[in-house]
Design brief:
The protein is 57% helix and 14% strand. The protein is α+β, with helices and mostly antiparallel strands. The chain has one domain (14-133): Ribosomal protein L17 (50s Ribosomal Protein L17, Chain: A), CATH 3.90.1030. A hairpin with a 6-residue loop joins β2 (95-102) and β3 (109-115).
Length: 134
């Protein structure tokens, strides 16, 4: 039985998959928007959100865990200084996936993964309160 065995295989061996996703998460957190396939996007989103949560923790142990995962100190410092402050009051959901359609060459589904802006959180809260009032 496959209980608690959820993982994204994405047709790569373990070390290749781990390295590729670490690089993808670093690019996402550095550039704040990347284009990829939906399966890779979901995998990268889960790891990126974990890294931002570590940044919000702010301890030395959390910083070391983030460096061990992402392997790029400049990106880790951005997470702990910029992104942790931006999402200090937000309990989760720091990224979003926007589906684009098919890629020209091989017709693979494509999407953007992006880190939410600082003002995206209050807009969503206002929309929820307006929907409740109506």
């Amino acid at each position: 039985m496959r209980h608690r065995k959820k993982t994204f295989k994405i047709n790569k061996h373990g070390e290749h998959r781990k390295s590729m996703i670490a690089n993808m998460v670093c690019s996402l957190l550095k550039e704040e928007r990347i284009m990829t396939t939906p399966k890779r996007a979901k995998f990268a989103r889960s790891l990126a959100e974990k890294m931002i949560t570590l940044g919000k923790d702010g301890t030395l142990a959390a910083r070391r865990r983030a460096i061990a995962t992402m392997r790029q100190k400049d990106v880790v410092s951005k997470v702990f200084t910029d992104l942790a402050v931006r999402f200090a009051t937000r309990p989760g959901g720091y990224t979003r996936i926007i589906h684009l359609g098919q890629r020209q060459g091989d017709a693979a589904e494509m999407c953007y993964v992006e880190v939410l802006a600082a003002d995206a959180a209050p807009v969503a809260e206002e929309a929820k309160t307006e929907a409740v009032k109506a």
